[in-house]
Amino acid sequence: MSEKPFRCGFVAVVGRPNVGKSTLINTILGRKISIVTPKPQTTRHRILAVDSRQDCQIIFVDTPGLHRKAGKAMNRIMNRTAANALIDADVVLFMTEATRWTVEDQDVLQRLQSVTAPVIALLNKTDKIHPKEMLLQALAEMSARYEFAEMLPISAKREDNLDKLMQILPGLLPESEALFPQDMFTDRSKSFRAAEIIREKLTLSLQQEVPYGLTVQIERYVEDAAGIEMHAIIWVERNSQKGIVVGKGGNVLKKIGRSARLELKAEAGVPVHLELWVKVKDNWADSEKDLLRLGYDSP
Ligand code: GDP
Ligand code: MG
Predict the structure, then answer these.
(1) N or C: fewer beta carbons within 10 Å in the chain?
(2) In this predicted model, what pLDDT tens digit does every residue of 259-270 receive, in sequence order?
(3) CA-based angle 94:96:97, to the nearest 5?
(4) Is 78 helix (H, G, I), strand (E, B) or coil?
(5) Are 163 and 152 in contact (CB under 8 A)?
(6) Is the pTM of this model over 0.85?
(7) What is the pLDDT of residues 116-165, one digit of tens each?
(8) Ligand 1 pocket, 241 CB below 6 A?
(9) What is the DSSP string of 190-223?
(10) Residue pair 59/50 in contact by the 8 Å Cβ criterion
(11) Using the 8-state DSSP alphabet, how is residue 117 labeled?
(12) DSSP classification of residue 172
């Protein structure tokens, strides 16, 4: 009897903002690889999540949501990053909300026309569908839109039907050795993760447009036997935003620093000393040069 060949490949997760791409990846990996918030455009980078199994290694590619209103340079980079993930993918997961189809979903579908890899449609958030018969209609409409290799209703949050997805995926990957070490879960560094966790807390705490106008840069990251010391700069686009992020008597910044520090400490298992500064860089999100300096580029 011949042994099953080892398989390894890239599974790009694409869709408009907020459909649950990062949630899906975190649920499958069983750990927080990507930050998640109720606000759209939370994911700004391509982030790899490596799922090493007995007979396969599935490399999930989390992407920023493809969106319209791509006014600023950062939005263009985000869209380009997501579009580029389609090029290298061995499998594409096209994620939508089962309850909603929008013009932005239509835009993503348009981009799939040039994809040669198999595309699986994931109709997410089925836990929100009432009555359940509506799902049949959503599936029928979806099947008419594209020649999908498979269509699966899922709930990334409740882990519904993900076992079905994980049964299908390995067989669609090429025969290949593992591309990453077994114990590597992501391609991103510890300081990138720290910046993301701080940005998650900022996004959860701040209202309206403020989260979209800020970014976090780790200026110092030192780890030794005593713990981790981190200095982070929160860049905002305008002076008025600085006041909002700092808050009255520094209360907003204090709260954000505390919750970020607690999460980082829990994850690292060592004490974390975190210092935060808020600085203004006029319109950084619309400057290609600033964006590059702050770690934004499309791979
Ligand atoms: P992304 O922008 O596509 O990466 O979406 P996120 O993973 O950041 O999720 C956006 C929001 O949708 C968050 O508030 C998630 O908690 C929520 N969400 C994701 N999956 C599900 C799901 O299966 N059911 C419900 N009800 N909410 C979900
Ligand atoms: Mg995301």
Answers:
(1) N
(2) 999 999 999 999
(3) 160
(4) helix
(5) no
(6) yes
(7) 999 999 999 999 998 889 999 999 999 999 999 999 999 999 999 999 99
(8) no
(9) HHHHHHHHHHHHHHHHS-TTGGGGEEEEEEEEEE
(10) yes
(11) S
(12) G
